[in-house]
Amino acid sequence: MTLSRTNKQASLPCPAWVWASGSNIHTAKDRSWFGDDYMPFESYVRSADGSELKVIGIGNVTLLTKVSPNKTGPRSHSTLRLTDVLHVPSAICNIIGVPILEGYNITTRGVEGNITDLSDGRSVAYFKRQMEGARNFEIRLSGPPIGPKVGPSPFNPSNIYWIHASWPDSERERFAAAQASRQPAAGASLDLAPSEKTWLKKHFQSEFRFLQIYGLSVFREEDREEGRTILRTIMAHSEDGASESKKSDGFDFETR
After folding, report:
1. Residue 255 lies in a domain
2. What's the domain of life for this entry (predicted)?
3. Same structural domain for residues 43 and 106?
4. What is the pTM of this model?
5. How confident is residue 46, by pLDDT bands cut at 50, 70 and 90?
6. One domain, residues 105 and 127
């Protein structure tokens, strides 16, 4: 492997989003997972061994996910929204903590499992099949061009990992005070900018077609709002914000 290829892989975001039932917060290693509402904020979380890991920011994350190992095509993709995610670059992986249960239900069966929306029971993600004896449930992300390019797994199959993050109440209160003193950031759901509309038309032809891919309707404003968030997530993870070499007609939904 060449040095340039190694450096390129190292710059890609960590792919592992692990369900950690003992964690009271979500964490992400890479800035690129966050949206427009990202807020720099210094804090810390405690890991499984009690050590403190530095937090440098907080925001919401929208993950582009596969809903089932048995589905293909446009409806095999969905989104998973995580709120108040801490940016922890030194963590071994990304963590999904118990706050997810406020909007989703998690079911695990042996070495498999899935995540469903509490509001309608719809499947939004599933966990990759684990090897017997493995302790960690990792969600299956949508691959490119629907999802972002990601780096290699941080895990060694021969090792056992204890995944945990705890954010002290005192730090939560400090963040709440800091947040209250700031002007709210511009919402990520504002109407699309001209450059975003151009990118959408180039890669998906129309908003109608783009929303169809995610089972959303152009006739429902809440669906259009969700679509804008998804679009911005895709653009944030694509090379230079608009992959020049890929158009929607070339999207391989069957194999991602």
Report:
1. no
2. Eukaryota
3. yes
4. 0.73
5. very high
6. yes
Asked whether residue 240 carries a pLDDT value surpassing 90, the answer given is no
Domain limits at 229?
194-250
The sign of the CA dihedral 236, 59, 222, 64 is positive
Structure tokens at 137: 């449930």
160 and 211 co-located in one domain: no
Task: Note the maximum CA span of the chain.
Answer: 51
Examine the domain organization and report whether 35 and 106 are in the same domain.
Answer: yes
Domain count, the chain: 2
